[in-house]
Design brief:
alpha+beta; five-stranded antiparallel beta sheet; 6 helices; 9 strands
Length: 234
């Protein structure tokens, strides 16, 4: 009889533990689903990572996105690579701010590089007449236009094309500097690329700032601050 009662207690205790574990698991799963449904989404997370890296989506060979819980917050882990580099970004799932990033330059096979150089040299030899015709323009507008076209072609072929936009970190730095603040004293609540401008919102202990930064030139398009005490200034 005593053994039966003892076994019954063990079964009840074990069952209670299972119920608790199951409830905790269900709670965590539910919280994860709510956080993911209210997040910026995978596509937006990828876009934030591409913009910060200065990479065009068409130059990305492979991308992998995961929704994770890291450092007490939900983030999107965005891993992608181009022909030259590998990127790993952690993007805040609620506001798109880059929380962590790692960029690795790929190592190239010297034999493959030699083959490419050999092909490139052969192309130059076969197109020697065209090069000479360009050199005949020794001065004036014609040579300037030719040079401009060559630079544009080079820029468009550059896979990272970092000159296209200044990047989120640079935009933040410009806005904070324009506000007369330092990065260590402010907290960002909004950081998005909206068309040709970066829309930024940040605050310190008593003032909120709203800035729009030109994505290409880095100039301040607009900016104003709101003091929590009630006074506004442009």
């Amino acid at each position: 009889m005593k053994n039966f009662i003892k076994n019954k207690k063990v079964i009840i205790t074990f069952s209670s533990c299972l119920v608790v574990i199951l409830l905790v698991f269900i709670g965590i799963t539910a919280m994860r689903m709510v956080a993911k449904n209210s997040s910026i989404g995978e596509e937006a997370a990828k876009k934030f990572a591409y913009i910060d890296a200065g990479v065009k989506e068409k130059n990305v060979n492979h991308v992998d996105v995961d929704f994770e819980y890291k450092d007490s917050t939900y983030v999107y882990s965005v891993e992608f690579d181009t022909d030259k580099k590998e990127y790993h970004y952690y993007v805040n799932a609620s506001n798109g701010i880059i929380t962590e990033k790692k960029i690795i330059k790929k190592k190239f096979d010297s034999k493959k590089d030699d083959k490419k150089k050999h092909k490139k040299n052969n192309k130059k030899k076969t197109s020697g007449k065209d090069d000479e015709s360009d050199k005949t323009y020794s001065s004036g507008k014609k040579i300037k236009e030719t040079t401009k076209k060559v630079r544009s072609k080079k820029d468009s072929d550059d896979e990272d094309d970092a000159s296209e936009v200044i990047g989120m970190d640079a935009a933040k730095s410009i806005a904070v500097s324009s506000a007369g603040e330092s990065m260590g004293n402010v907290v960002f609540t909004l950081a998005v690329l909206n068309g040709d401008t970066y829309d930024l919102q940040f605050y310190n202990s008593d003032t909120e700032y709203n800035y729009s930064i030109d994505a290409f030139s880095g100039s301040v398009v607009s900016g104003y601050s709101t003091n929590y005490g009630g006074s506004d200034s442009e």
